[in-house]
């Protein structure tokens, strides 16, 4: 099938030109002209989740479109930074290219590393050296470049993984299970005090240990929770289908029976 003119392949330089026209002070788009780093940030986060959703659904046609939307966000930031005299898209490409070469000496240099663990250690050391260089006093924390705006579950995972690679970790999984039981009991004790702030803190500690447990079992806690959410949603929708009226009109015992039916239905269809 012959391509239409607007379906012709577009180079990245053309995308940059489109962005510049959208931001043109005189002839640009009124919406694009008034945007800032802060105002487009929510759209960027949304696009990342849409990319993840397309990957989970294995919809590669949709993934292509969503990656395009995400790329547009990157080009948008680069255009804003170029207008402010900070950097442009070429600088972004140069920066990531140099970083990848620097962090892969076993690929782009003469250093030989065939062991995956050695590669990870070298990677972390290089990142630590980069953090040291960024710190004016020459003293950098291992946690400096973990974004504070990450969803807290992912941030907990990154914090734990980062410090564990430097030896700050439980010696074995048994200690994690003990800590889980300890934190669970502390949540129960805090609940008795009716001090919301204290209870919130203890529940946070319990969640943090749950993430640690997942890490020790080499399970991504974020993915595990996503699977649990989907499983609950699927079962709850089945409960709604079983019910002949609004579920608020049923007793808890009846709803439990519907829930068990939903679970059994899953087993029958598996």
The CATH homologous superfamily of one domain corresponds to MazG-like
Mean of all residue-level pLDDT scores: 89
Secondary-structure-derived class: mainly alpha
Shape, per Cα inertia axes? extended
What is the N-to-C succession of helices and strands?
HHHHHHHHHHHH
CATH topology of one domain: Helix Hairpins
> Would you state the CATH class of one domain?
Mainly Alpha
The tally of strands reads 0
Structure in a nutshell:
The protein is an all-alpha fold. The chain is built from twelve helices and no strands.
List the helices and strands and how they pair.
Blueprint: H1 12-22, H2 30-33, H3 37-57, H4 60-83, H5 89-103, H6 105-108, H7 116-134, H8 152-164, H9 173-193, H10 196-216, H11 221-242, H12 252-269
Helix pairs in contact: 1-4, 3-4, 8-10, 9-10, 11-12
């Amino acid at each position: 099938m012959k391509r239409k003119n607007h379906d012709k392949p577009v180079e990245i330089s053309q995308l940059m030109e489109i962005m510049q026209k959208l931001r043109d002070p005189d002839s640009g788009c009124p919406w694009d002209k008034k945007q800032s780093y802060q105002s487009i940030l929510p759209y960027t986060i949304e696009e990342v989740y849409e990319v993840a959703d397309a990957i989970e659904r294995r919809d590669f046609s949709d993934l292509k479109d969503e990656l395009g939307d995400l790329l547009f966000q990157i080009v948008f930031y680069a255009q804003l930074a170029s207008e402010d005299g900070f950097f442009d898209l070429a600088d972004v490409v140069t920066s990531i290219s140099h970083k990848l070469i620097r962090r892969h000496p076993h690929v782009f240099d003469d250093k030989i590393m065939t062991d995956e663990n050695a590669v990870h250690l070298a990677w972390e050391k290089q990142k630590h050296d980069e953090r040291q260089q960024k710190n004016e006093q020459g003293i950098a924390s291992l946690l400096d470049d973990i974004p504070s705006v990450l969803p807290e579950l992912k941030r907990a995972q990154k914090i734990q993984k980062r410090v564990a690679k430097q030896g700050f970790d439980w010696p074995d999984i048994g200690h994690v299970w003990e800590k889980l039981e300890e934190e669970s009991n502390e949540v129960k004790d805090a609940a008795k005090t009716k001090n919301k702030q204290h209870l919130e803190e203890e529940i946070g500690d319990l969640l943090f240990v749950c993430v640690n447990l997942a890490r020790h079992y080499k399970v991504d806690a974020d993915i595990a929770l996503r699977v649990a959410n989907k499983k609950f949603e699927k079962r709850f929708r089945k409960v709604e289908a079983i019910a002949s009226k609004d579920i608020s009109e049923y007793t808890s015992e009846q709803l439990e029976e519907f829930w068990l039916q939903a679970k059994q239905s899953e087993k029958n269809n598996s």
